[in-house]
Amino acid sequence: MRFFLEEAAEVGDEVELSAGDSRHLSRVLRRVPGDEITVVSANRVFAAELLTVGDVVRVRLNDELAAYTEAPLELILLQGLAKGERMEIVIQKAVELGVSQIIPVACERSVVRLDARKAAAKQERWQKIADSAAKQCGRTRLVEIAPVQNLRQALSALPEDCHVLMPWEEADGEGVGMALKTALSRADVPRCAAVIIGPEGGLTPAEAEMAAAAGADLVTLGRRILRTETAAIATLAIVMYQWGDLNGLREHGALVDN
Predict the structure, then answer these.
(1) I need a surface site. Which of 103, 138, 211, 214 has the fewest CB within 10 A?
(2) Strands 58-65 and 250-251
């Protein structure tokens, strides 16, 4: 498990961990001074020694490790609000697959409706789930969970050079949209990609038209209707395989010949 620092640090520095990480180390993991842990600071990974353990944990960064694990592709997930555990599963697995940001989207057919207070509370909980997943799977950066927003806001927040894909159940790969394989193979490998996934009720034709007008490729994932969490995980895995590092052929933004 990795522990993250908010500030940049160097080998030899003595630093304090966050209150949450300190409690976890002392009360849950029951670590003692002299134990070693892995600490991440500014995308750099260090072997660290525990100096004091309690409500405040202090560590010394002893060695820098060659353990950069981020994908060369900046992959953003625009996830339609889904009920309960489904949203949490998507967030956890998306972080494991290497996404850089998750934007929860209030879609026209979202069953979940959140006022400002509930949206803020959900964002806080989702951020904790994302942070925990990043620590468990060995990421060298934490994944931002953006505030809940509508699709128009989410699309406008994307980088200008982002290649957007939207799986849509009404796309057939012929008259409407294209196969995901076609969309992935017809474009050069981008620096940034975004995937739009609808909620349980799917995306409306108006939302598909809005995404297409913003430059998104409407794609089909086949003849079967997938649950929102299945569609998200499957699409992210395929995109990360084709354009990212899940195939083992890309290293820090470059293709590696095999």
Answers:
(1) 138
(2) unpaired
